[in-house]
Amino acid sequence: xxxxxxxxxxxxxxxxxxxxxxxxxxxxxxxxxxxxxxxxxxxxxxxxxxxxxxxxxxxxxxxxxxxxxxxxxxxxxxxxxxxxxxxxxxxxxxxxxxxxxxxxxxxxxxxxxxxxxxxxxxxxxxxxxxxxxxxxxxxxxxxxxxxxxxxxxxxxxxxxxxxxxxxxxxxxxxxxxxxxxxxxxxxxxxxxxxxxxxxxxxxxxxxxxxxxxxxxxxxxxxxxxxxxxxxxxxxxxxxxxxxxxxxxxxxxxxx
Length: 255
Description:
Structural class: alpha+beta
Largest sheet: 4 strands, mixed
Shape: globular
Order of helices and strands: HEHHHEEEHHHEEHEEHEEH
């Protein structure tokens, strides 16, 4: 949707694509590793240009209701408020799957503690200085000085193979960091699909991290996927999809 380290600016070409999809009755959800428990405003900062466009165009609720954010892989669901076009958290009871509701907090924290120990061990073994970040449902490292990509790959793959936990988790190389999250995008998509009523054959997940160390890989088991390298490719395929949607309205598919 945007380059690494950037967010939605008001001149982002992707904004028009997203709105056009929503106007075509397509649900659009951004499923991201970013997680800010209880802080909807931090999600809003990442989408400032998009939300401002919602307000400027005075989009009706029946359109903006089709936009959601699934944060922390699968831990936080947000929606757009009907009048102010701000983001708000959807109560967990309204969208979490039965499996998610069965996760015990002590098991989640134990997983994060064990993951942090592995991250410490790997950082020392590879002799890199890192900054540790621990949140409610995630823990990760960010190198203090630039390091090569393969170092982060080694750490992510080590965590994937050595961490044992009582709850699902996702250890991944984010390109500039390595994080371990409770749950994964596959679970987030399943919850999102159940919440919106979408079926697997009606769902397409677009991502750029489908390698073994990426956090998009798990979604292959849930729905169709599209592996893109940059926002330009995403835009190209969205325009192709919009063209097909419009064409189908004039020429219904007959088997």
